[in-house]
Amino acid sequence: MAFHPDGVFAWISAIDVPNVKAPETWKFQLMTSWRKSDDDEKIETADVGLADVKMRTKDFADPFRSANAWIPKGTPVYTNRVTYWQPVPWDNLGGMMSLAGDAAHLMTFRLTHAIADVAKYVAALRTMKLDQEKLKDAICDYENEIIARGGEEVGLSTMNTEMVHQWDKLMQSPLFQKGAKRIA
Ligand SMILES: Cc1cc2nc3c(=O)[nH]c(=O)nc-3n(C[C@H](O)[C@H](O)[C@H](O)COP(=O)(O)OP(=O)(O)OC[C@H]3O[C@@H](n4cnc5c(N)ncnc54)[C@H](O)[C@@H]3O)c2cc1C
To answer: Any signal peptide, and if so, which residues (predicted)?
Structure first.
């Protein structure tokens, strides 16, 4: 991961390592992000192109600068306009309909809560007896938990995303304050 004072974030991760001793066989995922500005209005409806990514990463230190500069011409670039919403209670039609994962609480950069939601949902259904009132209660309990948990995470991830794209706030971000933990 690298952060540029201009508010650009760059990421490189190895996604396929067929031969650990031969780096030329490895495949990488590169990601570049920045805050949308008024200047970006013109690309609002169009995808960001490879030239734009190269331009935004040209002043990074290596390996980020070269990794982006050397991306072969014609490589597809996928645009993701980072969005989020705060979950609010919804009408679950007496427990017959509910939401989970991104549909319930879309977040900016974070670890997904979708799997935790599914675990809670299954646990809620397991405690339920086969009658309509119990179904409604079980689903309402499930929703209360995911709306509170998901809502908190939406707020934190939004704050962190804002901070890592503004140099002056970066040092105060949860990422810098608490760190990114290596898990493998
Ligand atoms: C670029 C990117 C990188 C990410 N990286 C990470 C990461 O490293 N770690 C992490 O934990 N999370 C990551 N996330 C977040 C994670 O991918 C999501 O939180 C997770 O996939 C949400 O799961 P979901 O099942 O709720 O939604 P989704 O995975 O979006 O699944 C919804 C499914 O519903 C289908 N669908 C939509 N509309 C309809 C319809 N009308 N009828 C039928 N099917 C429909 C879609 O095709 C899709 O298959 C990343 C997200 C993005 C966009």
So the answer is: none
